[in-house]
Design brief:
This protein has four helices and two strands; from the N terminus they run H-H-E-E-H-H. A two-stranded antiparallel sheet has the order 1-2. It is mainly alpha-helical and 130 residues long. The chain has two domains: 36 residues, no CATH class; 69 residues, no CATH class.
């Protein structure tokens, strides 16, 4: 059975394209069976689908109290007044509304950091000769 839009003519370049023929050409181009493409479409950017690499601009900020660095995607206007969440709660313990589980984890981390600092200080003191 012949397709009603294709009459067997092999001269594809001289087709008078109406909407039905355009659909037919696109359909067969997608299947890879029909190799004709208009010259106008060869340089058209719509035919070339390339993924662009997405890049995000990040800003680094320092906490004014603890000195820790933080990466953020938003630009902050007053960089001198930046305070981390932990530092804010240390300054204002009455406003600390975090769950008890979070408070315990923070205390454990602080104790681990202090013990590691003590170990490093003691190790450095033992290495010094008399």
């Amino acid at each position: 059975m012949k397709n009603r839009y294709y009459n067997g003519n092999t001269d594809y370049k001289n087709f008078k394209t109406n909407n039905a023929v355009r659909f037919f050409l696109r359909f067969y181009l997608c299947l890879g069976k029909f190799l004709y493409k208009k010259k106008d479409n060869l340089n058209n950017q719509k035919d070339i689908h390339m993924a662009r690499k997405k890049t995000k601009i990040t800003y680094t900020y320092k906490c004014s109290i603890s000195g820790k660095k933080f990466l953020r995607t938003r630009k902050i206007t007053n960089t001198d007044e930046l305070v981390s969440v932990n530092s804010f709660y240390e300054l204002n313990p009455d406003k600390d509304d975090r769950p008890e589980k979070v408070k315990k984890e923070i205390l454990l981390r602080q104790e681990e950091d202090q013990s590691m600092d003590n170990l490093l200080d003691n190790a450095g003191a033992e290495e010094e000769p008399n």
